[in-house]
Every structure is written in C-alpha cells, then in structure tokens.
Write a structure and sequence with these properties.
heterodimer; A: about 850 residues; alpha+beta; Aldehyde Oxidoreductase, domain 3; Aldehyde Oxidoreductase, domain 4; seven-stranded mixed beta sheet; 35 strands; B: about 180 residues; Ubiquitin-like (UB roll); DNA polymerase, domain 1; 2 domains; five-stranded mixed beta sheet; 6 helices
Chain lengths: ~850, ~180
C-alpha cells in the first residue's frame, strides 16, 4: 500500500505515472481563478448590472400552513414604478429536483406550506419600489393546522401538506434487509441499542442567492445565477416556462459558497426568468439573508436508533438502523436523503447483515435538502459514537477496535456497494500517531479529552438524478494556433476549485502550464453537460472527461509531430510547452508549433471527452442511492477542554487524515479538508436551524428561531483550532491521476469525534448534535445524581414500516436483487464481476 | 406614496478619495456606502452577505480603518478616503497580501476575500508584525465559510515576511536593512 506522507504546502516533484514525472498534478499551486478572487474581479450573480435592469422582490407567506383563498395585486400593480406583478397562476407548472418529487410551484397557487413560501413577485424599476409594492398585495388566507415535527407528522395524517407520498404526511418510507439480521444478533456476544438526534443546520453561504435573467436580442432566455446545478435548472426552466431547452441558456456564476444550498432549481430563478421574458428587459433578484435562511435545503434533522451486535473481539455481527427524518415542506432531494441515511453505513466497517428503515415526513418548515455529506452525516454520527461506547464496554481501544473491523479494499458490501481503494486503516494509524493518541486517551486530566471517529464518503453519485443513459460529464477542448487550449465544460465553480482541477489535468497531459489553459465552465450554451457540483462528483467525472479529451488531443498532436520529427509517436513526451523525443530531447517542437502541424495535417483541432460511472451491482429497488465510482476515507482525532461547571467547550486541536487517492493540487486539497473540519466543528458545537412559535397573540406561526447570521452561530477566526492535515495518497484506478473526493468526506468524522472527546474529558455522553454547554451541564447533573450520565433522545416513535425488501448479501449468494420483489436483470458491464469480488470479500 | 425614479432621487452628492483617486458621486440619500460603491460607482469588488452588519463581507477601509460599508451612510463619507479591494494593488502588481492569498489557498469561493484583504491591510498598517493571535482577532469580524481560516492566517503571515523584505529596498535607512 502506498502511504507516502504528504506535507501539503511543500512543493514536491517526482510523482510518476507510467514512468513520466508529473509537473502540474500534485504540485501545490495558485489556483487558476485566484487572481480574479483576490482582486475582486470574480463576477458573482449580484455583481451583474445591465442597462434597463428591473428588480424583483417576492411576497412570502407569513403563515406556516394555509390555503390561499384570494390574491388581489391590483394596488401593487398601480404603484408607480411597478412593471409587473406575478402570481401562482402565471407559473403554475410543478417542478422539483427529483422526478419523483415534482411538488414545488415557483409561486404558490393555492396552498402555502411554510413561512417564507413565495406567493407573488413584484418587478419594479427600483428595488425599494418593489419592496413597497409587496405591502400592497392583498392575500386572503385560510389557516390550516401546522405540523411542526416528524412525530407530529406521523400522528397527524390530516391536513396533508402534500397530496402525494406514502400516506398522510409521510413522504417516504423505506425498508431494506441485507441478510437475516436476527440471526446476526443471535450470534452476537453483546447487543448495543442507542438513540441519537442530529439537529438540522444550514449552509450559510456568505453569498446570498442571486439571479439575473434577460431576454436576449434573439428572443431567447439567458439567466446568470448562483447555482451549483445549471443543468438541472435548465431542465426545470424548460418545463415550467414551456420552452425548448435549446432556447434557454443557464450560466452558473461562480458561487460565493454553496455547500449544497444552491443545488435545487429555485422559485426565484424561475420567477425572474418569466418576468424577463414578459417584460423584455433584464430582471434581477438578490435574496435577503433572512430569505436565504428560509430557502434552506439544508441538513435534515434526523432521529436515529441503532441496534448493533458485536462479538467480544469487536467484530460486528449485524446492524439495524432506523431513521426518522424531518423533511420540511417540500420533497427537494428528500427521497435520496432518506436512502442516504442508510446507504453508506456499510462502507467503513464490515457489516455482514444490515437492516435499514428510513422515514421522511413533511412538516411546515423550510424544506431540507443536501448539505455537505448529504444524509450520511447524521447516521455516521450515531455509528461512530456507538462504536466508542462499544469499545469502552469491550475494553478495546477505540482506534484498535476500528482497525479490526475496517472493510477490505474492492469489497462489495452487504448492500451491494462496490468499494475501491480503502486506506482507512492508514488514516487511523496516522491520526493516532500524530495526535499522540496513546498518551492522551483516558489519560488526560479531568476536563480534557480526546475522541476519535472515522468516515467514508462518495466520490460522485453513481446515478444521475433523472434516468438516462448519457454521460454524467462532458468536456470539449479547442486548440488554437497560438498554442492556447480552451476547456468547455458544464462544471460549476462553487469555490471548491473545479476550474483548477480541469485546467491542471489538461495542462499535465499536454505539457503546459495551467495559465495556458482558458476555461469556459458552468454555461449550458458553451459547454457539454456536467450534472453539477454535488455529491463530490466533479473531480472524478469532469476530471476524467477532461483527461479523455486531453489524451485525444495529445494523440492527434503526437501523430503530426511524429511525422514532422520522424520520431515514433510513443517516444514523444509533452512537457514544458514542448513536444520532444524522449530518446533525444533536443529533437523537439514548441507546443504552439505542434498544434499548427496537427492543424495542417488534420484540420481544426478539437476533441471531446466524457465520463459515465461504472455500473453498480445493486439491482434492488433503492439500490441506486449509494453507488459511487470510489469512496474517500477519513479519520480524525479531536481534543477538547470542557469546563465542568459551565459545560463550555473549547477545541484546541484537531488531527485529520484523509484518503484522497491523489491530491491534484495539495494547496486546494488542504483547504477542502480544513474547510470541512471547520464546518463540522460548527455543526458539532453551535449551528442549528431551529424553529419557534410566535406568541399566540401574534400569529402563532412556526418561524425560524433566528434567521440572522448574528444569532445563527458559526465559528469565527477566533474559534478555529489548529488542524493537522495528513493526506494518504494511494492513487485510485478510477480517479483522474488517481484522485478521490475531498470536499465533503473530512467533515463527517468531526461531530462524533467531538462527542467522543467530551466523554473522554468529563465522562458524559451527548448523543445529540449540536453539543451545547447546557446539554453537558445537564448530563453532568445526571452523573452527579447517579443516573445515566447522558443527554440525548430516549425513544424512537412507532413507524408502520413496510415489509422489507430482502436482499441476500454477496456472501450469502445474493445477486443484487431482492428475493421478494420482481428481479431486475443484471446489466452486464466490464466492471461487474460479482464472482471475483465475492471471493475477495469472503476472504476478508 | 410616490416613488421617484432613481435618477431624480440622486439628490445627494459627495466627493471622496476612492482608491487614491478623487471621485464625485451623486446618489439617493438613503444609500449606504456599500450601495453607492457597488451601484453608483461600479465597484463590485466589495461584497455583501447580510446588509445588517453581521457577516463582515462588506468591509472597506474608511480613512484607513476597517468599517462595515453596509452600516455607513454614504453621506457620512464626504471628503473621506475609501479603500476597497480594487485599490489594493498598484501599477498592475498585486499587493503582497493578494499574492499570498492567491498562492496559499486563502481564497476559495472568494466572496469574503475582499473584506478580509482590506482588513488585513489595516492590521499590517498598524502592526507590521502581528502574531497569530493578533491576526485571528483582527479578522474575526468577517466570516469565511470555506477555508476554516487557517490558510488565511498563513497568507497574512507570508505577506508580513514579504512586506518586511520589500521595505529595506525602498528605505535602506530602516533598521534591519
């Protein structure tokens, strides 16, 4: 196993692929878009000002749940400076990110489902005028009972928030069983049952969502918008506006932070598009911070119950996980989120038998959706805290316990996820070493402690959001006579460095500097489709597409240069902006000349590349959520200091190791790791998207507890601890130059590591996130009173689970189908070799 | 209630020094410095994340001191000196802070970067050799959701070294030259 230690900020050379030195990949570099960012020239959506531009504001529901009896916008329309007022009937067609949840309307027609649901739009010459006119719209509401949480939703089938879903206010219920879990529990020496709660939280990107739409001179639609998923917005606009997608251009402007919060097609985007078409003038909207909180689509609050069987040596015999999910008012990504609360539990440790039951309910709150670590963060917290409890009971060091049960590389899991490289063991050993774990765990003075936790995460979702057989990512390259190379791609830059990934791959293959590569990305007119910046998919998918396009360009150029220099093309190397004979390096042509030779020989030089993930062996219904080309792994140790009187927690230091495959740009990779640690720490200690009732004498409405940045606490520069980042690099055969994901995975171990560290420090279990000081104080009081030293949920409500789909795991002869469902035919592909992987898994 | 078109609302007028350049601007009197910079002067380098003085993304230097431009009325700025991210570099060269931020990964999405850059400049103008804690303290008014701040601290520290090396070239009389 390659386990080279990488110090992220030291230039390093000498990485080799097929004997050739890498000159760009793996070298810490200034990202291609850095200059624009440090000079303030990056143009975010709200930085766009166009002549004759009008401004849009949305009237939003003050009620969490109501029928709209009547809307009268006549006074608003008569207000001087108002150009247009739109209501639900102007854009009635339903849309949503998932084909199974087309449950949103850009403006509610007759039913509002949460405070902040948009009802009408005013488009005016001035932003202030639009604000003023909102007050002149008269809406007659018929109030409906508010459903404020999942337990209430289970008990309250009427009134229904939506007229689709399982029944009542249950949006989605799933039940899957991989092997006989009861047999697994019978084999166990110990059985652990724990209930956990993970509170919701939100992305809080500093850039507020903004969009500018314009009817272009030809009469087509163009929209610049802060979106992570221009392709999915493109589809939603075509549907709602009933236009050909060929006449719509979506330009994803660089996002001022996304984290999943700009991944849905949004009502405000559709509204400004409609208004621009009607008015034939540019229309802009920029949400206020309060509106951003109500837009949400963030982390689902999840109640979880874990039942885990273990042998005395720590071997897991079976896991039964139940999740109850607060979905908020719309579907959003929720069906996928529901599956994700169970899907990736099997990717870290070997679980021979696994039962997962998940239930998502509708409630009258802003819709939840995907946030960094989508759906996996919550159960990972439960799993990793429970493992800490298991380790203590079995008197095994928590690091040692995990090392004993880490899943094997290339295994197929009980739920038919095909894993690739796994360096979780090395991650654990590395953080144990650099943190001085063995000298600290259970050895620090009272009030000080360390905790360890691990995780795995997707490197790109295996399936697209809508069913199709096309590639998930495409890249076009254009080579010009001046030696310039231009990349056209739909990939959207949300700050993570996707432009730099594309530029570095192309530059590496063609022997150029990243500065020689020009990029046009996130534009549905200019580049081939990329599905978007979500599920940590861009490096592997757009990266592989760029690699293929660049390799194709390279071979065309090599053929022309080979003729010119009379050197066999396999001897040619591309480096330092030259193409040269590796046997006699002085025999060479400049890259620019090489392009001219190729153009003279073959005509205009342009190539394409595309990427489709390998097919998954999971054939059962629901098996589409969880597969990924490969998975990243992380392990973290967190040190905490807890004041035993106030419960106040400080975090002096965090050590994290991440199995990245290969770091394409170590500077950016380190930034992703530290940024994930930071965001995880915020979730662990302070961030919560919580709600409260207004007083009865007011509307009694269910509103956001504190829709402001001042009150929604997030870590500042004063709160951020020192972080030691260790990158474990074993190139993964499926990643471009071996790269795996880094944008999300390193967040996941932080919250459970904090909880485990709190236990090490003061001996109380906080089975709930965020871990507020008052929860610690309460648990300490329980401890003092001789009761269970714990704070957290104590029961999991009854859910009418459907009959489980029973899928025998690979080692029980399963073929990926459920035995009690219609079998689905295996789609043969080069990567599906169940027999061979079964053998490997059985050996483990 | 009558809302006048914006042109006829531009009844206020100030003269400021914006990024070392004398600048006259007319604007509606209710506008904040942030709005005048972005909407009336086309300086969109300065960002906003809340317009309530919470996120710190709109920081600019007013007479050398960092202020939240969303909380300053433009009318208060007459005859004052305003520095934004657009004025950090000179003669086509990036300021050492900008160079260090670009090289060391201190800007990810880049949205808070202009505010952090000018705030860091104000810090270094006052205290050319800040330690890590002083940097943390000085930058604590601007939230960054991407980086976890550490690469920002390192970039400021790298710029400190770079600036210290530059000064002796200009002024050999300074100690340490």
């Amino acid at each position: 196993m390659a386990d080279r230690k990488v110090s992220p900020d030291q230039p390093r050379q000498g990485s080799k692929v097929n004997g050739d030195e890498l000159r760009v990949i793996g070298v810490p570099r200034r990202r291609v878009d850095a200059r624009a960012k440090v000079t303030g020239q990056t143009r975010y959506a709200d930085d766009i000002f166009l002549p004759r531009m009008a401004h849009c504001k949305l009237l939003r529901s003050p009620h969490p749940h109501a029928r709209i009896r009547k809307i009268d916008a006549s006074r608003a329309l008569a207000h001087p400076g108002v150009y247009l007022v739109l209501t639900g009937k102007d854009v009635p067609i339903e849309y949503g990110i998932l084909p199974v949840s087309q449950d949103e309307q850009a403006l509610c027609v007759d039913h509002v489902r949460h405070v902040g649901d948009p009802i009408a739009a005013v488009i005016a010459r001035e932003e202030l005028t639009a604000w003023e006119a909102l007050d002149l719209i008269d809406v007659d509401y018929q109030l409906l009972a508010t459903i404020s949480g999942p337990e209430e939703a289970l008990k309250t089938p009427e009134p229904r928030i939506h007229d689709y879903g399982e029944e009542g206010n249950i949006h989605k219920r799933v039940s899957l069983e991989f092997g006989n879990v009861d047999d697994g529990f019978a084999e166990a020496d110990e059985i652990f049952e724990d209930t956990f709660f993970y509170q919701g939280n939100t992305h809080l990107p500093i850039e507020q969502h903004a969009s500018v739409a314009v009817k272009d001179p030809e009469g087509k639609l163009t929209i610049w918008t802060s979106t992570q998923t221009p392709h999915y917005l493109h589809r939603a606009l075509a549907k709602v506006l009933e236009m050909s997608p060929a006449h719509i251009r979506v330009i994803a402007t660089p996002n001022g932070g996304g984290f999943g919060g700009k991944s849905d097609p949004f009502n405000h985007e559709i509204v400004v598009a409609k208004a621009a078409l009607l008015l034939d003038r540019p229309v802009k909207i920029c949400l206020t911070r309060e509106e951003v909180f109500y837009c949400h689509r963030g982390r689902h609050p999840v109640l979880m119950k874990f039942k885990t069987g273990v042998k005395k040596d720590g071997t897991l015999t079976a896991v039964h996980l139940q999740t109850l999910i607060d979905g908020g008012a719309y579907g959003s990504y929720g069906v996928a989120s529901t599956f994700y609360t169970g899907a990736l539990q099997t990717t870290t440790y070997h679980i021979p038998r696994y039962r997962f039951q998940g239930c998502r309910t509708f409630t009258n709150k802003p819709p939840c959706g995907p946030k960094r670590g989508h759906g996996t963060v919550q159960p990972r917290f439960g799993q990793e805290v429970q493992l800490d409890k298991i380790a203590e009971k079995l008197q095994i060091d928590p690091a040692e316990l995990r090392l004993r049960i880490v899943e094997s590389p290339n295994a197929i899991t009980a739920n038919f996820l095909r894993l690739s490289t796994i360096n979780l063991s090395e991650c654990i050993r590395r953080v144990v070493k650099v943190s001085g774990w063995n000298d600290k765990f259970r050895r620090l003075p009272e009030g000080r402690g360390v905790g360890l936790a691990c995780s795995a995460y997707l490197t790109g979702a295996g399936l697209p959001i809508y069913w199709n057989k096309m590639p998930q990512s495409g890249v076009q390259l254009k080579l010009d006579r001046g030696g310039g190379v231009t990349v056209f791609s739909g990939a959207s830059e949300i700050g993570q460095g996707s432009d730099d990934v594309l530029a570095s791959i192309v530059a590496e293959v063609l022997g150029l500097d990243t500065f020689d590569v020009r990029l046009y990305t996130g534009d549905t007119d200019l580049g081939p489709v990329d599905l978007g910046s979500y599920s940590s998919r861009v490096t592997i998918m757009a990266g592989n597409a760029a690699l293929q396009a660049a390799e194709r360009a390279k071979s065309i150029i090599a053929e022309a240069v080979s003729e010119h220099l009379a050197v066999p093309s396999e001897r040619l190397r591309f480096a330092d902006k030259h193409v040269f004979d590796s046997a006699t390096p002085e025999k060479r042509v400049a890259f620019r000349e090489a392009v001219c030779l190729a153009e003279a020989r073959f005509g205009t030089i342009g190539t394409v590349g595309s990427y489709t993930p390998p097919k998954s062996p999971a054939l059962f219904k629901g098996g589409g959520v969880g597969p990924s080309p490969t998975y990243s792994y992380s392990a973290a140790v967190v040190e905490v200091v807890v004041n035993p009187v106030t419960g106040w927690i400080t975090v002096p230091k965090i050590w994290i190791a991440h199995d990245i495959g290969r770091a394409l740009n170590p500077t950016l990779v380190r930034g992703q790791v530290e940024g994930s640690v930071y965001m995880g720490l915020g979730e662990a200690l302070m961030e919560e998207q919580d709600f409260r009732r207004l007083p009865k004498r007011l509307s009694h409405a269910l509103v956001h507890k504190f829709p402001s940045i001042l009150e929604y606490k997030s870590p500042t520069s004063l709160d951020m601890p020192d972080v030691v980042t260790e990158l474990i690099e074993e190139p993964d055969p499926r990643g471009p130059f071996g790269a795996k994901e880094v944008g999300q995975g390193p967040l996941l171990p932080i919250m459970p590591a904090v909880a485990n560290a709190v236990y090490d420090a003061v001996g109380v279990r906080i089975d709930e996130v965020p871990i507020f000081p008052e929860k610690i104080v309460k648990a300490l009081a329980e401890k003092k009173a001789g009761r269970t030293p714990r704070f957290g949920p104590t029961h999991f409500p009854h859910v009418d689970w459907p009959e489980a789909l029973r899928v025998p795991p690979p080692w029980e002869g399963g073929d990926g189908n459920a035995v009690n469902d219609v079998p689905r035919r295996a789609k043969p592909g080069p990567e599906v070799d169940l027999a061979a992987t079964h053998k490997k898994a059985l050996r483990s | 209630m009558i809302t006048l078109p914006v042109e006829s609302q531009k009844t206020s007028h100030i003269r400021i020094t914006l990024n070392n350049e004398g600048t006259d601007v007319s604007f509606a009197p209710y506008k904040t410095l942030l709005e005048v910079l972005r909407e009336d002067l086309g300086h969109t380098g300065t960002k906003h994340g809340c317009e309530l003085g919470e996120c710190g993304a709109c920081a600019v230097l007013l007479d050398g001191k960092p202020v939240l431009s969303c909380l300053v009325l433009a009318l208060e700025c007459d005859k004052k000196n305003v520095l934004t991210v657009e004025g950090l570099g000179s003669y086509g060269n990036l300021h050492p802070l900008q160079d260090a931020f670009a090289d060391l990964g201190a800007a990810q999405c880049g949205y808070c970067t202009p505010a952090i850059l000018v705030t860091a400049k104000a810090l270094l103008d006052q205290n050319p050799h800040p330690n890590r804690d002083e940097i943390r303290e000085a930058l604590s008014g601007t939230l960054c959701r991407c980086t976890g701040y550490l690469q920002i601290f390192e970039a400021v520290e790298a710029a400190v070294i770079k600036i210290a090396k530059q000064i002796p070239e200009r002024n050999p009389a300074l100690p340490g030259a």
